[in-house]
Amino acid sequence: TRYSHSEKDVYSISSDAVYSITEDRYRRIWIGTLGGGLNLVNEKKDGSRTFINCSNLLRHSPDNLLYIHGMDVCKDKSVLVVGTDKGLYTCDLSLRPEKMRFYRNVRRNKDASSIGANNITDVVCAADGQIYVTTCGGGISKILSDNLLSDSIRFRSFTSREGLATDVYLTLAVDGRQHIWGVGKFALTEI
Asked: Edge-to-edge, what's the strand order for the sheet holding 68-74?
């Protein structure tokens, strides 16, 4: 089955530019789009599907949560971590969509413990619980805070100043030995 955005249906997927997909602990599918924001697949009793998004029950999601590049579920799959071109967002997945609150973390120039850059390109939650974020311009950031439901998450950023080949990373992966592999502009880096 192919799903497409329809201007006439507020319960259609919010954009055809799908960039990310993940499943939470409740076996719900979350879809991140470029330009339409976050979508939650809603399976109805008759087997049909609709999409909960900013046009309907997720209407309280922030305007800056429209251009999603990457996302993952963390903390026993109970927190959604979303990377956008305007910062990193988190929310508690135990809440109903219309009750969800989104926390935003952005680069603060005079704060070394803030995220490396605001343009987030990928998010990965490793098996050991560590969370890594790739950025366009700020290298790779590791989340240090235990509480993800906050507007003041602490990060440690790895950049070209610390020896990375570039500060522009598009995606990353964690291998079975918990080594971090970053794919960047003209670079493959293992941390």
From this structure: 68-74, 79-84, 87-92, 103-105
